[in-house]
Specification:
The structure holds 2 protein chains of 2 kinds. Chain A has one domain. Chain A contains 14 helices and 2 strands, in the order αααββααααααααααα. A two-stranded antiparallel ribbon of chain A has the order 1-2. The longest helix of chain B is centred in the middle third of the chain and has 30 residues. Chain B is globular, with a radius of gyration of 21 Å. By secondary structure, chain B is mainly α. Chain B has 2 domains: 89 residues, NADH-ubiquinone/plastoquinone oxidoreductase chain 6, subunit NuoJ (Four Helix Bundle (Hemerythrin (Met), subunit A)); 32 residues. The chains are: A mainly alpha, B mainly alpha. Chains A and B meet through helix 4, helix 5 and helix 6 of A and helix 2 and helix 3 of B.
Chain lengths: 348, 169
């Protein structure tokens, strides 16, 4: 077969698999969120549809599809429809550069091909994520403004100022990780953690990144853009049916990408800890599967952590949020870069 | 072949977006079309193997500057540029000769550089090459730029701080 076409097929298969993976994880997350919150609040949560309520997400999705799609008469129609799309597309695009397995070489159709377990292996990988993630702001701002409703506009404005503020400490905490690995390529960052994970080498950066990730994904304790008690529902107040579901989907997709990114940057990515793989000495296919499983388990744990925090901590006040971002996290991140630089200068 | 198709797609989108920016009556749509143009330019950068420039282009222009533009337009709440049309009535008589001169200039310089640029375009804009160029050949300008940015930041802080104290009194 023509190598160009073969590569095209491989890329298409990867895109489809990753997209299906993200959507299935979103479905599981919607259930997990409600079940875990039920457990934390000492109640049962949804357990009626299917065994243990496992079919609840399907029922929810069906409900979203068959609900009436209302476009209020006072909205700016074109932008109102564009808003949910603009927020969902970047949310799904960011996962493209995250590696979920090692690069392997194999024979396909009589020729040697290298299969990379990530959709696109960019040499600017981490910058790509920051750049695309910063585009998520447009969806909330445009959705909030086009709704022509003061609560929506307030939600949109809060969301964008929050995202812009927390992008800075997030980017700076990544800088120290990049200084350790010497590469922006995420696969290299994972390989760099073969001996010791970055969470041990860069604990401060991990904390800064995690707090920023909570703010970037608009999760509690930083969910001010959709603070129900003050803003009704924030930027998606006027949306119904699948347009509302698009906002939900993108929130969970962002959650998955943030968790996967934390795993990649700080928890060793797809690496299996304690040299278990070398000890077992399995054939390469099994090794791959175990590595992917390791990535999935770590990401699953981070997702659980997000849900855990959401049902544990109360919401911050808006000025507290801004103070934390600009007066605590930003100087800490800068300090961490200096510290990392000193460490590299002394130890190498 | 694929590259050619992609190039013409991005080029068409860039020009289309650019025309819509100046012709659309609602400034919010103009800003959104400007973002489309910026994206298409980033696509062309990627075709030229300048990945780093493409990504920085998106992060800085589309991700930061245009968001602020959009903010300003939204909060000023300019519905349509009704009055503005009258004020710039005679501008277009000046604009047409200026546009002709600009096109001639662009065409001339593009024609001059055509032969060399086609062969030399590759591998300049990757992260490694830009990094090593910034920290060797262009180290002094790079550091001076950082001083300039610090001054600008301090200035912005000072200006906003001053307003705050005035309003409190």
């Amino acid at each position: 077969m023509d190598p160009v076409i073969l590569n095209l097929i491989i890329v298409l298969v990867k895109i489809v698999v990753v997209l299906i993976g993200i959507f299935v994880t979103i479905l599981i997350l919607t259930l997990a969120e409600r079940r875990v919150s039920g457990f934390i609040q000492d109640r049962l949560g949804p357990n009626r549809v299917g065994p243990f309520g496992l079919l609840q997400p399907i029922a929810d999705a069906l409900k979203f599809f068959v609900k009436e799609d209302i476009i209020p008469s006072h909205v700016e129609k074109a932008l109102y429809i564009l808003g949910p799309m603009l927020i969902l597309i970047p949310a799904l695009m960011t996962f493209a550069v995250i590696p979920f397995g090692d690069q392997i070489y194999t024979y396909l159709g009589g020729q040697l091909v290298d299969i990379r377990f990530q959709v696109a292996d960019l040499n600017v990988g981490i910058l790509y994520i920051l750049a695309i993630a910063s585009l998520g702001v447009y969806g909330t701002v445009i959705g909030g403004w086009a709704s022509n409703n003061k609560y929506s506009l307030m939600g949109g404005l809060r969301s964008s100022s929050q995202m812009i503020s927390y992008e800075i400490p997030m980017g700076l905490s990544i800088v120290s990780v990049v200084m350790m690995s010497g590469s922006l390529r995420l696969q290299d960052i994972v390989h760099d953690q073969a001996q010791l994970w970055n969470i041990i080498r860069q604990p401060l950066a991990f904390v800064i990144f995690m707090v920023s990730a909570f703010a970037e994904t608009n999760r509690l304790p930083f969910d001010l853009p959709e603070a129900e008690q003050e803003l009704v529902g924030g930027y998606h107040t006027e949306y119904s049916s699948m347009k509302f579901a698009a906002f939900m989907l993108s929130e969970y997709a962002n959650l998955i990408t943030s968790s996967a990114l934390m795993v990649t940057l700080f928890l060793g990515g797809w690496q299996v800890p304690f040299g278990i793989l070398e000890f077992l000495n399995l054939p390469i296919l099994w090794e791959q599967l175990i590595q992917i499983l390791s990535f999935v388990i770590k990401t699953g744990f981070m997702l659980f952590f997000f849900i855990w925090v959401r049902w544990t901590l109360p919401r911050f006040r808006y000025d507290q949020l801004m103070n934390l971002g600009w007066k605590s996290l930003l100087p800490l991140a800068l300090f961490n870069i200096v510290l990392t630089g000193l460490g590299i200068a002394i130890f190498s | 072949m694929i590259q050619l198709i992609l190039f013409f797609t991005f080029a068409f989108l860039a020009v289309f977006g650019g025309v819509m920016v100046i012709s659309h009556r609602n400034p919010i749509y103009s800003a959104l079309f400007l973002i489309l143009t910026l994206f298409s330019l980033a696509g062309i950068y990627i075709l030229l193997l300048a990945h780093f420039i493409a990504i920085v282009h998106i992060a800085v222009y589309a991700g930061a500057i245009m968001v602020l533009f959009l903010f300003v337009i939204m909060l000023l709440n300019i519905k349509a540029e009704a009055q503005a049309r009258g004020a710039f009535k005679y501008m277009k008589y000046l604009a047409i000769p200026m546009a002709v001169i600009l096109f001639l200039e662009l065409g001339y310089s593009g024609f001059q550089q055509y032969k060399e640029s086609v062969t030399k375009a590759s591998e300049i804009g990757t992260v490694e090459n830009i990094g090593s160029a910034l920290f060797s050949t262009y180290l002094l300008p790079f550091e001076i730029t950082s001083v300039l940015l610090v001054v600008a930041m301090a200035g912005a802080l000072f200006l906003s701080k001053k307003k705050l104290s005035v309003s409190k009194e």
